[in-house]
Every structure is written in structure tokens, then in C-alpha cells.
Amino acid sequence: MEPKQLKIRTDIPEPVEDEIELQKVINQLKNELVQLVSEKGSFLDHSVIHLSQTLDTYILQMQKEKFTQTHFSHPASFGNMLNK
């Protein structure tokens, strides 16, 4: 059985507003990346790098949202950050 061909993403990733959907996108891209590396046999292949960068974009979005929720939802946390 031949491995499923992956669509190479050439578009700029759009932010995902819903946290659950964002997690789904991240998990899907992780799975695609594992499969693509297996198919290409290299981390240096252009399509692998591009997919990895796309995944990084969504991971950073998730981290920024988590940071914002944690540090800016409580005014005392923001004040404590300024005093460090």
C-alpha cells in the first residue's frame, strides 16, 4: 500500500481563533510532518522545512494565547512581572 500523498502548503497560515480547533490543527500538522519526514527521508527537504515552519507558527500562536491568558488575566500577575 502506497503512503498517502500530502498536500504541500504554500499559503501563509491563518490564525485559528478557537483553542480546541487550534489544538486540532497542531496535532494534524504534527502527524503530517512525521509522515512527510518518513516519505522524504530527510529533515532538510524543502517541503519538510515548510511544513515544520507552518507548524511552528501555530505552536507560537498557542503559546502566546496561553501566556496572555496566564499573565494578563490577573492584574497582580502583570504587576509582579514588572517588578522582576
What does this structure look like?
- The chain is about 70% helix and about 0% strand.
- The radius of gyration is 17 Å and the shape is elongated.
- It contains 3 helices and no strands.
- It is mainly α.
Q: How many β-strand stretches?
A: 0
Which runs of at least 5 residues are low in confidence (pLDDT < 50)?
A: none
Radius of gyration: 17 Å
Through-space gap between termini: 57 Å
Largest sheet: none
Please state the overall shape, judged from the principal axes of the Cα atoms: elongated
Share of residues in helices:
55-70%
Average pLDDT across residues?
A: 82
User: How much of the residues is beta strand, in percent?
Assistant: under 5%
Query: What string, H for helix and E for strand, traces the elements in order?
Result: HHH
Question: What is the structural class?
Answer: mainly alpha
Number of helices: 3
What is the oligomeric state here?
single chain
Key phrases:
3 helices; mainly alpha; 84 residues
Summed up:
With 84 residues, this protein is mainly α. The protein has 3 helices and no strands.
